[in-house]
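Problem: given the chain below (485 residues), write out its structure.
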Amino acid sequence: MQRETNRAVTSSVFLFVGLALLAVLPKPAHSQSVVTFKTEDGLTLYGTLHLPKNPQPPFAAAVLFAEPEWIVRSTYDAGLAHDLAENYGIAALTVDFRGTAGNVNGRMFQTFSARDREKLQLDVRGAIRFLASQKGVDPKRIGIVAVGVGTNYALLEAAESPAVQGLILISGSLSDGARDYIRSRRDIPILCIAGTDDKESFRDMSEALYLSKNKASNILLSTGHGTTIFSRTEGLAKQVNQWFADNIKGLGAETEISFQTEDGWSLHGKLRLPGNRDAGTRVPGVVLVHGAQHDQETYYDLSRALAKKGIASVSFDWRGKNREITETRGHYGVNLSAAERDKTSLDVKAAINFLASQSAVNPNQIGVVGATLGTLFAMQGSIGDSRVKTMVMLSQYQLDAAVKQFLTTTDIPIFFIASTEDRNTELGSLADFTAEAYRLSKNKFTEFILYDDAGRGSEMLEKKDELEGMIVRWFQQKLAAAPVR
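Solution.
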């Protein structure tokens, strides 16, 4: 009887200790499940879906394809995919191509004809669409990891899918179509990985890096072929996932917005919030003001670069531009009156107010970019606004009295950029106007760069590759942006 009592007590103690240990053990930060999806030609493919727990939606995502005929998708499930979901808050879908592993569907990859292999692009398309449909996933922020012959089909589908924002190519091969895509999409970064002893893949991956014009594109070298590379180079997997977090998650979420000016215009634009920010924290923000001959899309690359460094942005179209055209008020450059155009500073004020009102943005750390005529409106719209801490002016327009007073009395640093050949036939040299504004600026940290051959306004960002990085660093420093993880 005493033994039975002792056993009961011992069992209770073990049960209590076990429950206590379960209570203190860290809970998994992601879930994992086997899923299926359909391709356009009717095949059912299997994959494994890794979803982060409690991330801040919408969150970035990745499709990781195993190498046809060679390695199955489990090569990622305990490694890259697990780490993306667990430690980076990024959804990950691992997939076997048709004809491989659970996706044989009656025929093995080794028996595929050249036409059969072309259908691998449909597998990529189906996986992207399936992942983009998952709750919480940002359908505009998906990356692809592909290996071997699969890299070619990943590139070909990326050329047609606006969801794809970056690619990781491992021991890949390139078709002419894939090469054309890399050349054409400067905005899409590519990380190439190759073994130096795998000569053909090393050649193609080196060429991919050469063809890519994106500043974030890179190549990592190891030995071997395919995903076996990860077991041969310590820290390589972490480098890959960090690159993914920096360049795809880091782009942040872009949303279409509208806001009202104080004189009744309804303006449309885009808000981009950085992805690598801690929940509950506030980040600096920048209002992007285009020039007379452009619209908000002129800052497409700059807004993405700012987000990667932890800075939010708002871009928008002036009154009388694109969707801002109204029959009663006019179309810019056609029948919008000069008096109405000259109130565009109210558009800038409204954009600053909108950006400062966002819960993720620090309302006292706002910057402004202006280009050509937009520089005038940017400064006019910032007069008396203590939330604006710095500005970047691209080809300063002719100064009026209010802007001259603003420059001589407002103690904020301004980064002026101009080019000597930039002349307006009616007004004169924008380089001279920029130099005058620089001289008038009160702040001792104001800077001025004068090129000889950079063009005009926001076009200088296209002609001078280094400018984007210089502007981003300026805002990081002057708005005290915290370094991103």
